[in-house]
Write a structure and sequence with these properties.
Organism: Desulfuribacillus stibiiarsenatis
Order of helices and strands: HEHHEEHHEHHEEHH
Protein name: Segregation and condensation protein B
Pfam families: SMC_ScpB
Subcellular location: Cytoplasm
Largest sheet: 3 strands, antiparallel
Strand order of the largest sheet: 1-3-2
CATH superfamily of the largest domain: Winged helix-like DNA-binding domain superfamily/Winged helix DNA-binding domain
Number of helices: 9
CATH architecture of the largest domain: Orthogonal Bundle
Function: Participates in chromosomal partition during cell division. May act via the formation of a condensin-like complex containing Smc and ScpA that pull DNA away from mid-cell into both cell halves.
Shape: elongated
Structural class: alpha+beta
Amino acid sequence: MDDIEKKRVIEGALYLFGEDGLSLKQICSLLDTDEDDALDLVLDLQQDFIRDSRGLQIIEIADSFSLVTCIEHAPYYEKLAKENQQTALSQAAIEVLSIIAYKQPMTRAEVEEIRGVKSEKAINSLLQRNLIEEAGRKEGLGRARLYKTTRDFLDCFGLRDITELPSIPELTLEEEEQIRNLFQEERE
């Protein structure tokens, strides 16, 4: 692997580890190289970001390197965050939140199986609003992330705990069939 590919691997790993960042020791392990080589690659990548005037930068905090946004762009991101907080939840997000609230913890695939449509965007929206959070990994193949509701969810809906959710009304066979037909029509 040449240095360009190594820097691309470091960039991707820094993105994956987000705020936690990576220590030089972790980068050495990742690339199977020594500390001098790893440090040279990180510093070179850091200069690449500066030289190319990118919207991200690499910083070192407490012996870890992190990929972060540039401080001069903070007002733009704050504006975007405020706009996102002021918008109401989409119908898809409400459906996903309801499913997770009643059947938690569950994976994205399990949510999608119930809804019959992709739910990644809705889950990300709920994570950003701190209404759901990761609750570990499911045992088995792929070890998919599990999601559950948060304390903010309880605060938002005025619940002491999850057992205070209203019970789901039992449907007649006819009502179940109507709902099933409704979802089939929406998919077609």
